[in-house]
Amino acid sequence: MASFLEERAALPDQQQVNRALIDLLDPRPGERIVEAGSGTGVLCRLAAERVLPGGWVTGLDLSPEMTAAAERLIPPGLPVAFVIAAADAIPCPAGRFDAALAARLLLHLPEPLPVLAELARVTRRGGRVVVMDWDFETLAVDHPDRALTRRIVAWRTDHHSGNNWSGRQLRRLMLDAGFGNVQVTPVTTTVTQEATSLGQSLFRAADVACDGGAISPAEKTAWTGALRRSGADGRFLASITYFVVRGEVN
C-alpha cells in the first residue's frame, strides 16, 4: 500500500491536486503544521519545504506500517516527524499548531466531525485548517456508452471506498464544526492518458461494479475496451473535481 501511495502521488493529476492544497494551506517559515491521516507523508514533505527555516511538520497516521514507510522517506534535514495516532485523539496540547490539514481522509470516516473538532483544538486561534476530498460523481469521461457509464459511476459512488460525496459536503461540515471564514476551492483534474491516477480509477470502477453485480463481465469488457481504444488513438479524456475547503479557528 505504501508503494502504491507514493506511485500515485507521482502521477501528474495527483501532483496538481497536492500542489493546489499546499498552496491553499500556505505554510510559512517558522510555522508548526500537523496533518491527520498522513499516510506515507507526501503532503507533509511538501509542507515541510515551506516552513524552513525554523518550522516543523507532524504527520499522524493510525497505521504503524505507513508511519514506518513515511519515516524512511524523509529527506535529510527536512523538518518533519511522524506519529502513530488517531485523527480524533491527537496527542498534543491545545493550540500547538499554526495550521492543520486532512486530505483524502474524511470520506473514509463514518463521523468526520470529531476529527474536525480535534484539528480545531490543536490549532491556535486564527490558525488555518484545510481539508480535501474528491466528489466521485463529478467524474466526466468521454465514452460512447452513456447509460453504462452512468451505471458504473453511480455504483462506484454509492457502494465503494467510503463517502464519495464527501467533497461537496466539506463546506457544511467545516461550518458545523465552528470554523470561520470558510472558503471553497474546486480543483478539477483533466487527463488525456490512461497512465494517470484518474485513468486507473476508471478501470478500477469497472472492476468493482462488476464484482458488485452492477454490470456483467461482458459489459465490463466492452466498457474498458472502449476506454483502451480511445487511449490508443489519442482521444482519451476524463476529469474529476476535488474540493479543497479552508477555514480559520475562532
What can you tell me about this protein's structure?
The chain is α/β, with parallel strands linked by helices. It has a single domain (2-248), classed as Vaccinia Virus protein VP39 (Rossmann fold, 3-Layer(aba) Sandwich). The protein is 43% helix and 26% strand. The protein is built from 9 helices and 7 strands. A 7-stranded mixed beta sheet has the order 3-2-1-4-5-7-6, sandwiched between helices. Helix 6 crosses helix 8 and helix 8 runs antiparallel to helix 9. The radius of gyration is 19 Å and the shape is globular.
Describe the structure concisely.
The protein is 43% helix and 26% strand. It has helices at 2-9, 12-25, 42-51, 64-72, 113-122, 146-159, 166-176, 197-211, 217-232; strands spanning 32-36, 56-61, 80-84, 97-103, 123-141, 180-191, 238-248.
What labels describe this entry?
single chain; 250 residues; alpha/beta; Rossmann fold; 26% strand; globular
With strands numbered from the N-terminus, the spatial order across the biggest sheet is: 3-2-1-4-5-7-6
CATH class type: Alpha Beta
- Give the termini distance in whole angstroms: 37 Å
CATH homologous group name: Vaccinia Virus protein VP39
Rg from Cα: 19 Å
Overall CATH architecture? 3-Layer(aba) Sandwich
Biggest pleated sheet? 7 strands, mixed
Helix-strand makeup class: alpha/beta
Low-pLDDT stretches: none
The 3D shape can be described as globular
Order of helices and strands: HHEHEHEEHEHHEHHE
Q: β content, as a range?
A: 25-35%
Number of domains: 1
CATH topology: the name is Rossmann fold
Strand tally is 7
